[in-house]
Specification:
alpha/beta; six-stranded mixed beta sheet; globular; binds ligand MGD; binds molybdenum atom; 4 iron, 4 sulfur cluster binding; 4Fe-4S; molybdopterin cofactor binding; iron-sulfur; MopB_CT_YdeP
Length: 768
């Protein structure tokens, strides 16, 4: 299996490399974001739009899920938020003429970057069976086509309904309601590829699959551990929060195979020191860990904390919180026995760290009364991600760091409303209580059998078990693992439908028939029958607030996501549905009333969301140290320690984001902090590994992934860059490397693709 760089693009892959930077943000970041915004939107629209981002009467940034501080700056956005806004608010348009000029076969040769640069989608488009081009279609006809295919299925379970994490609470609630009235729980979402491992681990151990800290907690913490996350790029506003935490005396440990610039030093463009001075040094201790070594690290720290508590005097005094453990936890003895058995040598092998690093970390852990652990994809996308995150929970429970100010778990979410979508019921394995509430409120019997997650949906499409694929946003084909398998699966479908704002690869790799349904973005005015509407979102810390777009929609043909669901539901379900779809479409307040009746924590939703600051959803462990788990307590766990074993002559590859992309959306070709420009087919390798493998800096290589079943997958033509990554660990950008991630390589329990631990062989390409 091989994937070549897309042909037919004006952009050639010719990477240029300079040394990585050691600080993030500051004035260059502002300049860079304004340049991109001006290119896409012009000067006036840039000013008008960017001033509305994350303001109390404005729209929620479509970038990441980091929360808004209560006191907002006039410009409460970051460089990458500005790019996300510019991408959506661009003045460029994809019209029917564009589709007439570009047959699907041509679109399929284009890079994601080129497709995105064409601008906003403007009209519903239909690709008929055997046709070469998409043609304009009316909304009514488009809904007829979907309804005909859905009603022709032998079972509702032959349809798959994907969601990406930008969908608002209102749209997500309606979407899952429609899908369940139609009769299936096949609701995979981007979460399956993202924080599913966090959800699995936290639900089992704490009873709530979400983070337990609020923004204020960061400011009160003594110690913040940031593991497996690159906030300088992916959650830049988090750097301001870390800066403030440091000003309050917090220490920061970052745990990462890469020395990410944002975590080293931060020049806040919103204060004078950041603009003119050297900025704030953020990381006090950098643990240059090997990929997948985190479970071993936390296990050893747990052992050392237990041993410190044994000494029972001096530094060890109160090393563990005995009262909390007694009152609130379950499984301590078994956990403690496993932790005490942790082995130094094995830990040093798994982590690549030295003893002195771990001793320093331990001293900081013991000195801290309030500890928070933040993490993202570096912890969630490995085979043993769920036990890794459970070990983080053990680590926090041991010293009572859950359910009090300045302490807790902080999985930092990706998409701006990915957490809210789950709260609204976008889940292939819904809780029975949620289905009971739906049944009570809407008077139908929702399906109870679990549906397909992302990986299972791909298998079902591949094997002909699923025949219709419908996506509410996202770019399923490019974001999912095992690109060739996924593309073949998609081509096997009878109908593929995408509700989208921008063109992407999923529109070019289609089923027998395909539809593109263009929709409003966050930045745009949403006018419905009963007047202007707003929507709501939930951030990474469980705060819910309103989002109002102000811009003129990109085209008069666009429908909002709620309107699309309502019209589709009426057409598919017909008079048998007693749900007031027409009313919902006219007035989103009526959707919120029903959310209030179904989803715990949303009582008086319409009233409470009128507070511009929004409101916090309840979180039992945080609010009252109560744990809705099977045991009624917070659960310690004792899984065996795992870490990736890499055969001789191979490297472990992580697939990650550059500074100039949003998942599969490529904004530009400048991974500024890492010093990599004008090309994305690069592989970062430690200089000593490169030397052992005979890979000169600047040479070209193929990446060949080797899966346990003996199959190989190949991505060709990557420029080698000698880079200070941990020994044995390489890094390349996603989505180009998704071709290397086997569909079956997933995390235990959560089934999340293990896209941060791909075993690869580097095969040098002879000079042309
Ligand atoms: N600008 C921008 N913002 C984004 C996104 C974007 O693409 N662009 N994507 C959004 C989404 S959906 C998400 S989920 C988040 C993603 O946010 P991140 O998780 O920060 O994204 P990645 O680029 O995947 O970076 C993973 C980080 O973890 C490190 N890492 C990898 N493996 C390991 C490991 O085994 N152990 C440890 N300790 N570290 C490891 C990597 O070196 C890297 O620093 O960002 C969101 N925000
Ligand atoms: N190898 C590898 N694979 C990964 C990852 C990795 O780190 N490595 N990360 C995984 C993660 S964390 C995630 S979250 C997934 C992301 O997977 P997805 O969420 O499926 O992908 P995105 O690239 O975020 O989707 C971008 C598209 O969303 C559409 N869009 C944007 N805004 C809106 C909107 O408001 N409404 C609608 N309807 N559409 C909109 C646009 O058409 C755009 O092209 O990828 C996963 N895949
Ligand atoms: Mo994500």
């Amino acid at each position: 299996m091989a994937a070549k760089p897309p042909a037919g693009d004006p952009i050639q892959d010719a990477p240029e490399v300079t040394p990585p930077q050691r600080a993030a943000a500051g004035l260059p970041a502002v300049g860079h974001s304004l340049r991109i915004a001006h290119q896409q939107m012009g000067v006036r629209r840039t000013a008008l739009t960017l001033l509305r981002v994350n303001q109390k009467d404005g729209f929620d940034c479509p970038g990441c899920a980091w929360p808004e501080p209560d006191k907002r700056h006039t410009a409460e956005f970051c460089e990458n938020g500005a790019k996300a806004v510019a991408e959506e608010a661009t003045l460029r348009r994809v019209t029917p003429d564009f589709f007439a000029a570009h047959p699907v076969a041509d679109l399929a040769t284009r890079s994601g970057y080129w497709l995105g640069q064409q601008g906003r989608l403007t009209q519903p488009m239909y690709l008929a069976e055997g046709a070469e081009r998409y043609e304009p279609v009316s909304w009514d006809r488009a809904f007829d086509i979907v309804a005909d295919e859905l009603t022709a299925l032998d079972s509702p379970d032959e349809a798959v309904f994907y969601t990406s994490g930008r969908t608002s609470n209102e749209a997500a609630f309606l979407y899952q309601l429609f899908v369940r009235e139609f009769g299936t729980n096949n609701l995979p979402d981007c979460s399956n590829m993202c924080h599913e491992s966090s959800g699995s681990a936290l639900t089992e151990t704490l009873g709530v699959g979400k983070g337990s800290v609020l923004l204020e907690d960061l400011y009160k913490a003594d110690l913040i551990i940031v593991a497996g996350q690159n906030p300088g790029t992916n959650h830049p506003r988090m750097l301001s929060a870390l800066e403030k935490a440091k000003a309050g005396g917090a220490k920061i440990i970052s745990v990462n195979p890469l020395p990410e610039a944002g975590l080293e030093r931060f020049k806040n463009p919103q204060n004078a020191r950041g603009i003119a001075g050297g900025g704030t040094s953020l990381t006090d201790l950098f643990l240059h860990i090997r990929l997948g070594g985190d479970q071993a690290l936390f296990r050893l720290l747990n052992k050392l904390v237990l041993e410190a508590s044994d000494s029972a005097s001096g530094a060890g005094e109160g090393a563990i919180d005995e009262e909390f453990i007694r009152e609130h936890t379950h499984g301590f003895e078994e956990f403690a026995a496993a932790a005490r058995a942790a082995d130094w040598d094995e830990t040093l092998r798994a982590t690549g760290l030295d003893r002195a690093d771990i001793d320093r970390a331990l001293a900081m852990v013991l000195a801290s009364k309030r500890t928070i652990v933040c993490w993202a994809m570096g912890l969630t996308q490995h085979k043993h991600s769920v036990p890794t995150i459970r070990e983080v929970v053990n680590f926090l429970l041991l010293r009572g760091n859950i359910g009090r100010p300045g302490a807790g778990v902080c999985p930092v979410r990706g998409h701006s409303n990915v957490q809210g979508d789950r709260t609204m019921g976008i889940f292939e394995r819904p809780a029975p209580a949620f289905l009971d509430a739906l049944e009570r409120e809407f008077g139908f019997a929702p399906p109870r059998e679990h549906g397909f997650d992302v990986v299972r949906a791909i298998r079902a499409l591949r094997d002909g078990q699923a025949k219709v694929f419908f996506a509410m946003g996202g770019n399923f084909v490019a974001a999912s693992p095992d690109t060739e398998v996924t593309e073949a699966a998609m081509r096997a479908a009878r109908l593929t439908v995408h509700v989208s704002t921008k063109l992407n690869r999923s529109h070019a790799v289609t089923g027998t028939r395909a539809l593109i349904l263009p929709t409003l973005g966050r930045t745009e005015r949403d006018l419905q029958g009963d007047g202007p509407q707003f929507v709501t979102v939930e951030d990474s810390m469980g705060m819910v607030h309103a989002s109002r777009g102000r811009l003129e929609p990109a085209s008069s043909h666009l429908l909002s996501e709620p309107a699309i669901v309502c019209r589709l539901a009426r057409r598919v379900l017909g008079p048998e549905s007693h749900t007031p779809w027409e009313e919902f479409e006219k007035d989103y307040g009526r959707i919120r009333d029903r959310i209030a009746a179904v989803v715990p924590g949303f009582e008086d939703f319409n009233d409470r969301v009128s507070d511009p600051a929004g409101f916090a959803l309840p979180h039992a462990p945080r609010d009252s140290r109560s744990f809705p788990t099977a045991t009624g307590k917070a659960n310690f766990t004792a899984a065996p320690v795992e870490y990736p074993k890499v055969p001789e002559g191979r490297l472990l590859l992580q697939t990650l984001r550059s500074h100039d992309q949003y998942n599969t959306t490529i904004y530009g070709l400048d991974d500024r902090y890492r010093g990599i420009k004008n090309g994305r087919r690069v592989v970062l390798v430690h200089p000593e590994d490169a030397q052992e493998l005979g890979l000169a800096d600047g040479s070209y290589t193929d990446l060949v992934s080797e899966w346990t079943d003996g199959t190989e997958r190949r991505a060709t033509g990557f420029r080698v860059i000698h880079y200070p990554t941990a020994r044995g660990c390489a890094a390349s950008y996603y989505p180009e490397t998704n071709v290397l991630v086997p569909l079956d390589a997933t995390a235990d329990t959560s089934n999340t693709p293990a896209s941060k631990s791909v075993v690869v062989r580097l095969e040098q390409t002879p000079p042309a």
